Amino acid sequence: MKNLLKINIAFIFVIAAFTSCNNAKSSNGKSGALASNVAEKVYVAPGEHDEFYAFLSGGYSGNLTVYGLPSGRMFKEIPVFSQFPTSGYGYSEETKPMLNTSHGFIPWGDSHHPDISQTNGEIDGRFIFINENNTPRIAKIDLRTFETTEIIEVPNSAGNHSSSFVTENTEYVVAGTRFSIPIPQRDMPIKDYKGNFQGALSFISVAPETGNMDIKFQILMPGFNYDLSHPGRGKSHGWFFFTTYNTEEASTLLEVNASQNDKDFIAAINWKKIEAYVNNGGGTMMPANYAHNVYDEETHTATSTMKKEVRVVNPSEVPGAVYFLPTPKSPHGCDVDPSGEYIVGNGKLSANLTVHSFTKMLDAIENKKFAGEAYGIPILNFEDVLAGSVEQPGLGPLHTEFDGKGNAYTTFFISSEVVKWKLGTWEVLDRQPTFYSVGHLTIPGGNSSKPQGKYMFAMNKITKDRYLPTGPELEHSAQLYDISGDKMELLLDFPTHGEPHYAAAMRADLIKERSQKIYNLEDNKHPYAAKTDADTKVVRKGNEVHIYMTTIRSHFSPDNIEGVKVGDKVYFHITNLEQDFDVPHGFAMIGQNSSELLVMPGQTKTSVWEPKQVGVWPFYCTDFCSALHQEMQGYVRVSAVDSDTPLKWSLGEDIE
Amino acid sequence: MKKSNIIMLLAAILPLGLFLFPLWRITLEAPQYPIPLAMNIHINDFSDVHPHDIKNINLMNHYVGMQYIPEAIPEFKIFPAGILIVSFLGLLIAWKGNYKWFLGWFILMIVMSIAGMYDFYLWEHDYGHNLDPKAIMKFTNKDGTVMGFQPPLYGSRDILNFRAHSYPQLGALFLGLGIAAGLLAYVVGKKKDKKTLVM
């Protein structure tokens, strides 16, 4: 036993020696005259704009961060699934409904895979969708305002991981389940998993104009784990591909028990066929309970509606719609090349990278060359659908992206590198180390028929020594590579926020031109908006006090309020009357058990305060709005419950 | 119709361009306004160059106690009437009159334009100097007098952190061309008249 340990240690040292050797080589190559060249490639002069937007998921931060490429500068954190005290998202009365679910209000989420809307297979930059993994949800962010405007909960799902990828015309945003579960949920022994649990793959339709989401149907698949997915495109448009693991259907120690089969599957789903079936009344409406939360830009308010049923389809009801493609060893990423012909199964425990051919798949289906079936779903022969494999490219392949020039780039988690290889010949062209243990990678426009090339960035799981140390907990690191030449060139190392899983990126121009500067005050339809100083007032309804308040440089109106009592529920409805770009006002009340509000020009937001003590309590503007920001403040007089202090409010004069 | 009368006809019509295009523009530049604030002055209106510019100019100006730019001023009624009248007179003399009338119209236009500019100067002066005594920030000149914030009548000038520009717009060009055409009509008409006399 001891000997075995020694051998292991020796082996690790040998590996370490090799690794450090590689590192030394690459860093030597970059010093000297070439280094300045690299710096120029990522230098964006002060005041200049980056060429690309990159939207990185925040992972366990629950949010989405916006970066510029090639500079690697972070511009914004968009709150999606997590409360965000900076702006009041999830704290303000208007946005609390966004985080409502069938389990009640949830302050946090785990965001994974952003994907930008497409038209005719090209990225159109209108919306970005992102999945919440833990309590299955899909969110839509409007790229005019960079605000989350819709969140739909996904019923019958658990670990919403093979999500949220859009089809070539954004007909659907697709969400697959990682865990299989009893459907419908019921009390049963866990050991009876096999044959009883099911995995739901949800097709959420997206309305062409508004982008409104609605679950069109769910396919109830066998009890495997559905890991990742991608849509077909071009010739394979109308199909969707999902990688699976745990085809062993184990419910415990999956690390071992789900790694036994030589091959798991890629599930190929002809969603057009199922759509037609459903349009003709097919499928079953099943009782469900899930939240659909929509933010209205005119009322600046979200509403949450509980939906009570969902349409489910059993694959056996629609023959010829679902097939299994055997794929070696627990494939993780499921990536489709820009032409739609190649489906890459990144078998994470496999030595080789498997690529299936869509044409060969159709041929095998037509000739009914089946190797068997699982739960009534035909299994095709591995050899019949295999386009080729990349032999021994690295260890632990996870994800593949494409440059649109016939090359593919695959991340290898264990060997910590990105490998460039050629579609069709399957030869390895180049490899570059990542720092360290890369997960996803992104090429702008990667998930479309027209990748925008030029750059690729790798998002890593381990940071260690890449930056100045910040104690045990570190932000993750990303590396940007120039992929315009034959060889990849490492340009930049930049820290990311949260734990980015995947990112979507695109040329800046489309989004930049449409980005909104302010909300028009005229269009504000918030029921509690005060659109001029004359509309400000304080209204009591029982123990609720509604304050219709405005902000403009540099005062609140009203700024002196009396007649509030201990035990009241005070609603500050704050309308920002500004109509100038980048002049928000903030609001914070002493002792308030909530966050501040940050109110954009033309917007109304509401904050609740429940005063517990008599006194005169101040509030102030938290955003350095102007030269007189420090003067932007006010007082609320709180009287005892049984007092008869009349309700009064004023600005610029003493309350009589 | 005589050549001079055709030119006069043109002269009478051109000032109507003031109803289509702005007369003047005041632009305020500052580092934190990468897109400058700007206001167009029409013959009958003030308008934003970019949405909400006037509101934002007012917000800036309230720090030093300047009045809000009014929604309407009496000039917005007087100026359009004046232009309509002189255009009508111009049309009348283009139809009936001779070159001597054209000179008269030209002089009338010059006088009216000067009066208009003077009126604009008076408004600007009042706007820039008639400050709220409770102004948040009070500035004085080196000689101790209260600093004014009057934009230039014509040209560019620094006012605190702003650089103010005041320049004519397309409407003013139409007016200017009209006036010049009036003079041209007179010159052409006079030459023709002399030739006729010699012959």
TrEMBL record, chain A:
Keyword Metal-binding: yes
Cross-referenced Gene3D superfamilies: Cupredoxins - blue copper proteins, YVTN repeat-like/Quinoprotein amine dehydrogenase
UniProt key word ATP-binding: no
E.C. no: 1.7.2.4
Gene Ontology cellular component terms for the protein in this record: cell envelope
Recorded GO MF terms: copper ion binding; nitrous-oxide reductase activity
Enzyme class name: oxidoreductase
Pfam families from the UniProt entry: nos_propeller
Cleaved signal peptide residues: 1-24
Keywords: Copper, Metal-binding, Oxidoreductase, Signal
Domain of life: Bacteria
Subcellular localization: Cell envelope
Protein name per its UniProtKB record: Sec-dependent nitrous-oxide reductase
Species: Psychroserpens burtonensis
UniProtKB/TrEMBL annotation, chain B:
UniProt protein name: Copper chaperone NosL
Keywords, comma-separated and alphabetical: Membrane, Transmembrane, Transmembrane helix
Source species: Psychroserpens burtonensis
Transmembrane segments: 78-95, 102-123, 170-189
Organism domain of life: Bacteria
